[in-house]
Amino acid sequence: MSSVTMRVVLSSLLLLVSVSAHAAGSGSGASFPAPAVDDPLAKSSSQQIAVVAGGCFWGIQAVFQHVRGVLNATSGYSGGDQKTAEYQTVSTGETGHAESVQITYDPLQITYGQLLRVFFSVAHDPTEFNRQGPDEGTQYRSVIFYSNDAQKRIAEAYIAQLDKAKIFRSPIVTQVVALKAFYPAEAYHQNYAANHPDSPYIMFNDAPKVEHLRQQFPSLYTGK
Description:
Blueprint: H1 3-17, E1 48-54, H2 57-64, E2 70-78, H3 87-90, E3 98-105, H4 112-123, E4 131-132, E5 135-136, E6 142-146, H5 149-164, E7 175-178, E8 182-184, H6 192-195, H7 200-216
Parallel strand pairs: 6-7
Antiparallel strand pairs: 1-3, 1-6, 2-3, 2-8, 4-5
Helix pairs in contact: 1-7, 2-4, 2-7
């Protein structure tokens, strides 16, 4: 049985005993604070990159594909070496990689801090250590891979802000790590949620995240 098939099977079994489609129950978007430290919207259109990890990349990609201002979201691997950036190898949990998503966005339309607001509020549960929902292992850890000092400053300040406000019942365990490289995942992982909407894993773990985005952040949601 492939790792992908096992993931779907295990998820379905867990859902029989506990329906927990999205663990980061943090209230409405209006009540989830915006970052106090953030860059302003740019004055002209361009492309910038953000890389985050928070469990299975299928769901993270699906969420950010529905965020206004995001031009592209690509599933892949970050944190390890190029030679181990392959799904079956990463699935051992011994490569240093995390299943990650590279977000290409227009800073004229959305800020880095706004992307992190979506990441922390609806895309994943930042209090789960080396796991996310039904998936366990270091490859499912919560990480922000920053590419410059500004991203690092915004990410660290936002985590401190959320912890101080006790937005979550437990402390945030998200790592803030310098981005060394991003390696796109195999073609069959790209747009997985869109291509497999009837998969039990997608229906119970990822589709609700997109719906939470639509409900909690209607001004940021796009149906594309």
